[in-house]
Amino acid sequence: AALAILLPLNSALAVCTPALNTNSFIQHDLANSYCELCGVGSVRVRVTNPRDTNDGDLSNIVVTEDLRASGLTYVPGSTTFVGTNVAAPAAFNPVVSGPNGSLLTWTFPAGFTLEGQSGGAGNKEAIEIRYQVRRFTGLSEEALVSANRTFQGSVRFTPSCEVTIPYTDTDVDEMPIRQPVPRVTKLGRNTDAGQSSGSYTNTAYGNINDDVIWRIQVQNQGLAALQDLRIDDVMDTGNFVINYLCPNEATASAITSNNGIRPGGSPCLTVGNTIPNFAVDDPFGSPSNDEPGAFVDAPANGSAFLYFVGKITTSCVGPRTNTVSDVQWGCEVNAPDGGITTPATTGGSIPGGFRASHTATLSTVVTNSGLTVTQNLTGTNTAQPVGSKGTVTLIFRNQTGGTVKNINFTDTLPPEYVVDPTFTPTVGMAPAYGNSYPGMTNLITWTNPAAGTFPLTTTNPALPLSNTAPRFSLTSSTVHVNYPDQRNLMRHGDVLTVTFRIVLIKPQNYDKVANLDVRVEAPNSTPPNTDPVNNTPSLTNRLDVDFEQFCNPGIIQRPAPMVQSNIPVSPEDLDIDIVGSELIFILTNNPAQPLPLTVALTNNGGHDARDYHAFVSFGATMQVQTAPAGCTSIALSG
User: Fold this and answer.
1) Which residues contact 383 (CB under 8 A, 6 or more apart)?
2) What global pTM score does this model have?
3) Could you report the per-residue pLDDT of 274-300, keeping only the tens digit for each?
4) For 121, 251, 426, 593, which has the most beta carbons within 10 A of its beta carbon?
5) CB 468 within 8 A of CB 503
6) Residues 6 or more apart whose Cβ sits within 8 Å of residue 14
């Protein structure tokens, strides 16, 4: 906000128009003016003659800047003048006076005049004073954040319309401040879970002996570099031990790649679960190793990172938190580190985005009900309902909060179906973070097929009919190099898909006869039942899953059975008919008069029909002259 006041030193008005009392002559350029925490700021103040030609020139110009209680003062030799439509005088320093050097006075040389100009704002004469400010010697640099930054500019001049009456105009503003605005974020990643440096999350999931990196990011959203950074960090005890604090991602990853052991020559520090008052000095901070030339911990619009490395010690303790708090910063010249806990306000408001604490979570305990399975029974064309064959797709999702292993499951199929032994079951794993990891489940084994049915070698047709409740085991092709119990794993967030096929064994659902006397086959046709009656409009499938946890190794966990009902089923139904309204055909022995015959084959079922054969037979006295594409004439014997 700006306040303009024009004060005559006496009340006499001779030639000047009344508008002289309302014109604005001085204004701060707040878009380009600022003070800076721990540094030097820049201020621009502009004096403009808004009067028209022959309506008042300004002379005897004196400009005063009152920095008031800000604790700021002038930087010697920093003044420059920029003229608009007027030649600027040579630069000179102001007279500095007042408490803490807060009063700055520029008295322009005699003969310097801002003349009134007609023709619009672009023709007006103006002089801009540019100068630098810093905290007065002996005052705390850090105290600028709590100082009152209100400052006043004033100009005194003599208008040519009344040379005996000097006038004064003022402008009062809050000086903008360039300062760091930290925003702290704590995230974690489990390197043994394939969680890469680009996949940090607010909650890290894992199991005993996993290595986890906790990353603190101090993002500086301000316009000034952040100095003297210090933090507190506390990891709850119970399921995790922090061992090291590292200055960058590479040195932290080198530890987790070495089974949590710090390699020789590492710059990482030995720490524990509680780290109070940690000062971010070299080699920490960004840029690192900049001291003593500079003491920047996080540049403007940049970030500083710290990395805590440790191991999960148990899978039997509930969620624990890791909190960074009491983030402080300051100026290197003011000891000790820290000192500022809240940024300076502007207009009474703290800058948006400021955050001085943040919490991440570690989850290791398994909640059995969190292992869910979606059951999809479809046709071999998975967009259609189950037919004479079907596809069973089981999607396992681990949302247990931890790691499960050694998953087995039994699928009790609908009584109308058995496993298709000609199809090899498949398994596919989508790991939570897109990367495979040691011990990740990627194999499936059918453990209870009837003898000789998988692979299919038996010639006994009854044996495949007994595969009504297949049991499968899910395993891994790899194992953790240091921990042999880490095999056959499914970690939190993983999604695993199992696929196998089934075959319809209910004879009543197959239409095996074409009745020449029935044009539209149906269960209620005449004669009846020329089409099978579908007494099973829907199916029910039951899934029993068991697995183990790391908290109770060797103890089989058995969640409640999962039952999927109302599964639609609609087998293929091929019906054949001779096209025509009158099925009376006259065939002569004249080859020039052939008899056209059209046969329609229609699938009235709900699933595509494949590998089918349709036969159209003719009497011995008939000879087929042409056949449609896809049909072949064959000779019948007997």
Assistant:
1) none
2) 0.87
3) 999 999 999 999 988 777 777 899 999
4) 251
5) no
6) 161, 162, 164, 165
